[in-house]
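**Fold tokens**
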Amino acid sequence: MTEFPALRDALVRAAARRRRRRRRAVAVVPALAAGAVAIALLPSSPPERERVAEPPDGGALERAFAVFRRGQTPADRWPEAVSDPSHDPALTRLLGERDGVRVYAVPGERVLGYPRVCLHLDLPRGGSGTCAFLRTVQTDGIALNDLGVFAALLPDDTHDVILVDRGGSRRSVTVRDNALVADDVRGASWTGPNGVRHVRWHLAEPPRAKLPARCPPALDPLPADAVERARRAALLAVDRLYPHASAATVSGATPSRATPCGPAVTRRSIELSLQLVPRGETRSASLAQGRLLLGMLDGRMTVYYVMH
């Protein structure tokens, strides 16, 4: 014991304080451990905001069809009398009407995860419809001929649309809002945005058109864009020259080097090859190809000879 009472008392008080600090430290360690566990259980970052779901087709429907990019009008609404839970009423579009038959385009139910597009003909006493995969419709279009009405939903940049009536007369039509709706139609053809010519016939296809049996005596000089004109003229003639084909593409087009028509006609000719998709179950290789000669006649690019 120290001989200085004041110093002794100070040492005793210091020792008591050290014991109290040790007890507090022991109590704090479990608390810190529990806090660490609680912190570990909290999310590392604030939860993300809820994301707006993309359209089921990833926007491909709107990109390919102007009719789906515009706002829906009251006339576009799916008829209340028709119950179809697979269709979203906010996405239907009225394409047109003929003799009381209304034609609607609408996204269809997915099949194997792939989106589809449907055409529906609506009548007071019923209707009919057809569907196809969106990836096909956005390049080829979709068509339906029923109830006396021909209807088609055609993608943007579809051009050279031709209708053939029951008497065989052909007429060029303009597509608005991706819609083609007509009556008294035997067939229709159009060129899609990918350059493929599509042909649709109602019931039986017509006979092949007859061409002149002789070469032309002369041709006009070829213009600078002769190859492009020949490609277009050949596709426009597919439904007449190859009515068995459901689709056609130009596989080659070059100035001719040899024809059955002599050198004067040859040097003003374009030789063109077609790849054809036969209609229905036809699989003959001879029906899957076409070879044409074209030239300028009276200021127009014209098919004047069919070699195959």
